[in-house]
Amino acid sequence: VYLAVRRLAGASRSALLFVTAAAVAVGVLVYSTMLMSSVKATTNAKTHVFAGSDVGITVSRTDELPAIGVPHTRVLQLDRGEVSGQRLDVLGIDPETFAGAAYWDEAFASDSLEELTARLGPLDEGGSLPVVAAGGAELPSIIQIAGNDVPIEQVGEASTWPGMLADNPMIVADATALEDAISAAGGSIGTAGADAVVWARGDEQRVLAELAEAGLDTQI
Questions:
Q1: pLDDT digits (tens, 9 = 90+) for 107-160
Q2: Which pLDDT tens digit goes with each residue over 40-94?
Q3: How crowded is the C-beta side of 181, counted as CA atoms within 13 Å?
Q4: CA 4 to CA 24: how far, in whole Å?
Q5: CB–CB of 134/164 below 8 Å?
Q6: What single DSSP character describes residue 148?
Q7: Distance between first and last Cα of the chain
Q8: DSSP characters for the chain?
Q9: Dihedral (C-alpha) 117, 213, 202, 40: value to the nearest 10 degrees?
Q10: CA separation for the pair 137, 161 (Å, rounded)
């Protein structure tokens, strides 16, 4: 190091300029590589949060979920929830298959995805719907879904949840219990504008082919 510094100190201005330019070029290359990696990782995470998993395919609500060769689950997505005048997205899930198919990052919640989904289930004795709140929602004991008052009981919280479509807060519930709660309030899952979506891990074309082979219409 000493000899190298001595040689640079005694070098001509042109040599020093060349070394400086080379160092700057290497620095820019390293920085741009790190920046691209960070942007790619962030984009990938946001895409998976938006889609819920590697693949999200709308299907009919009346179709049974078939067995295919990749982890998969079916969710009900509703955008007609409301709390204190603010839009509230609603997601109905199958707790048994959700954790294996949904995109998840440990930073989303202090509890694991398995712990949170295990707390979801049927309506309690008072008729309240157990829900996980995501996105910082401050939930009262009653929310509105498609104009119907639905009593809820918060059993967990997360900063982010798979399937969040925007900056709106979200509640997550067992899909069957969600239908029961809306029916008990005088509405129906149909009038609530629910979309059934299959989330799956793996290649999209493979998932589409296997669902079509199982008889599901994936062109909805």
A1: 999 999 999 999 999 999 999 999 999 988 778 999 999 889 999 999 999 999
A2: 334 444 456 656 888 888 888 887 888 888 899 999 998 888 888 888 899 999 9
A3: 34
A4: 18
A5: yes
A6: E
A7: 68
A8: -HHHHHHHHTS-HHHHHHHHHHHHHHHHHHHHHHHHHHHHHHHHHHHHHHHSSSEEEEE-TTS-----SS-EEEEEEEEEEEETTEEEEEEEE-HHHHHHHS---GGG-SS-HHHHHHT--S--TTSPEEEEEESS----SEEEETTEEEEEEEEEEES--TT--SSS-EEEEEHHHHHHHHHHTT--TTTTT-EEEEEESS-HHHHHHHHHHTT-----
A9: -100
A10: 12
**4-to-7, 16, 20 alpha-carbon distances in Å:** 5, 12, 14
- Position 152, amino acid: I
Q: Is the pLDDT of residue 28 over 90?
A: no
Instruction: Please give the model's pTM, rounded to 2 decimal places.
Output: 0.77
Cβ–Cβ < 8 Å for 54, 48: yes
Question: For residues 57 and 87, what is the distance between their CA atoms, to the nearest angstrom?
Answer: 24
Average pLDDT on 19-45 reads: 55
Q: Are 75 and 197 in contact (CB under 8 A)?
A: yes
- 207 burial type by CB count under 10 A (0-12 exposed, 13-18 middle, 19+ buried): buried
Q: Angle 131-167-202 (CA atoms, 0-180°, nearest 5)?
A: 75
- For tokens 């100190």, what's the residue? 9
Q: Which two tokens stand for residue 184?
A: 């008990």
